[in-house]
Amino acid sequence: MDLTDIFASSVREALDQILKEGSNDPAPINLLDLDKIELNYRRWCEQHTGLVPYYAPSVNNHPTVLALMARLGVGFSCASAEEMCTALSLGVPASRIRFVHPVKTVESILFAKQHHIRRLVVDSVTEINKVYRLYPDAQLLLRFRLSREQKYGCCPRADAPGILAHVKANGIQLAGLYVAIPAPNQHQVEALQRALEQAKALYEQAGALGLTEVRELAVAGVESIPSSALASSIANLGLPSTVSCIIETERLFVESAVTLVASVQSKRIVRDPDQPELIREIMYFINDGRYGSFEWWKPVTKEPAVYRMNSARGPLPAQVWPSSVWGPTCDSADVVFEQVNLPELDIGDFLVFADVGAYGGTLASQFNGFPLPRMIACTGKSSTRALLGIADTP
Question: Would you call 33 helix, strand, or coil by DSSP?
Answer without folding.
Answer: strand
